[in-house]
Design brief:
This protein is of the alpha/beta class. The chain has one domain: Rossmann fold (3-Layer(aba) Sandwich). Helices cover about 45% and strands about 10% of the residues. A five-stranded parallel β-sheet has the order 2-1-3-4-5, with helices on both faces. Strand 4, helix 7 and strand 5 form a beta-alpha-beta unit. Helix 4 packs parallel to helix 8, helix 5 packs parallel to helix 6 and helix 6 packs parallel to helix 7. The longest helix is centred in the N-terminal third of the chain and has 27 residues. The N terminus is likely disordered.
Length: about 240
Amino acid sequence: MKLRKGLVALLLASLVLALWGSTSSCAGDKNPAATPAPRDKGWVKRHEGFVTIAKKGDVDVLFLGDSITDSWRSKAAQATWEKHFKPLKAANFGISGDQTQHVLWRIQNGELEGIKPKVAVLMIGTNNLGGHKAEQIAEGITSIVKTIHEKSPETKVLLLGIFPRGPKAGNPQRQKIEHINNIIAKLDNGKNVKYLDIGQKFLQEDGTLTKAIMPDFLHLSAQGYQIWGEAIAPTVEALIKGETK
């Protein structure tokens, strides 16, 4: 009898461990780059500022992203912004340091309440490179695009490939970026998502990035913002008019 009870106890313990392991595995499979997440109090305050802007309405073009987008506010980018995007009723919801999961949280928590942009310009993912796999980052970007359309079905998304970084063409981060871009390029459906990779416009013929374009091989100079603005402005204007090709 004691032996039988011992076997039953052992079987029950094994079953509990198996179930726990299965649950842990499922939790471990959750993609952090596609799981909405906030940051610190200062970040939340900036987000709340964007929510206030959104509630006021009158935004036709919305820029979403990280520090590269955030820096459209900088003195270096000001002239290009005012020339190409300010006349289009553009708003800049970029926050320095953001990753895909942060942008996802922001648009799920008020930044698209009160506005129905004609175009959303999205460039995100470079800050995920160190901590997430290419496929995870691409899934995070996909989730953002999907959420934009859930919140604002009529919005056209201009999805930009992640910009190149690092001084030389053989940089491992460049290879990872290319892999991500190849995946997200497939989101272009000829209807409400337009994919555009302008990365080559920042590079020399041999693939070199110069400090004149990206002083730290990541963030853009005034010349870099001019290249960016001129590269996408015609597409933004076409999408506003309803053209998707």
